[in-house]
Amino acid sequence: MATADPARPGFQLPLLLLAGFRTLIDDLHAELAREGHPELRPLHGFVLQAVGVDGTTATELGQRLGISKQAAGKTVDRLVAVGYLERVDDPQDARRRLVRVTARGADGLRRSAEIFDRLRERWAETLGPERVDALEDDLRTMAAANWFRLDVPGWLGG
């Protein structure tokens, strides 16, 4: 059944949500670059979150992200090369290597959180704080209960 209002066809809603997401992410990365993190890309935030505070293996990382072990390994290699992750021996099992977030990676995550706060404030200045609050409330109502999922890279990649 077609949308009753031809000025608001159904396909526009996901595209507008994606455009809002893309705007926030592009603005985040522009600011991160100005603050000393030009190497960070949108995927890297998911990776750093998936590695977590205790570290993980490349296999576990791939599972958390919904991508292959090989894809996870390539991403880890890139983030090790630019100083956001490190590989260390697992103190629990000498046969395993753990991937851990470095101080530089933690700084990138901290700055990302601070920048997101500033971006939200910018949206509130433009739209009004009540409208931003309502938008967030409405999205929470419509989103799945487990709305924050780290497997977005694998989901997007198919």
Structure commentary:
The protein is mainly alpha-helical. The chain has one domain: Winged helix-like DNA-binding domain superfamily/Winged helix DNA-binding domain (Arc Repressor Mutant, subunit A). The protein contains seven helices and two strands. It has helices spanning 12-34, 42-51, 58-65, 69-81, 103-127, 129-142, 152-157; strands at 85-90, 93-101. The chain has a two-stranded antiparallel sheet. A hairpin with a 2-residue loop joins strand 1 (85-90) and strand 2 (93-101). Helix 1 (12-34) crosses helix 5 (103-127) and helix 3 (58-65) packs across helix 4 (69-81). The radius of gyration is 18 Å and the shape is globular. 18% of the residues are buried.
- The pLDDT mean sits at 90
Kindly provide the name of the CATH class: Mainly Alpha
CATH architecture level-2 label:
Orthogonal Bundle
The separation of the N and C termini measures: 28 Å
Which homologous superfamily in CATH is the superfamily? Winged helix-like DNA-binding domain superfamily/Winged helix DNA-binding domain
Reading the helices and strands in chain order gives: HHHHEEHHH
Structural class: mainly alpha
Basic shape: globular
Provide the β-strand percentage band. 5-15%
Number of helices in the DSSP assignment: 7
- Major sheet strand order: 1-2
The helical percent reads: 55-70%
Q: Count the E strands.
A: 2
Q: How many domain regions? A: 1
Radius of gyration of CA atoms, rounded to a whole number: 18 Å
Reported by name, the CATH topology is Arc Repressor Mutant, subunit A
List low-pLDDT spans.
none
Keywords: DNA-binding
Organism: Micromonospora parathelypteridis
InterPro entries: HTH_MarR-typ, MarR/SlyA-like, WH-like_DNA-bd_sf, WH_DNA-bd_sf
Pfam families: MarR_2 (PF12802)
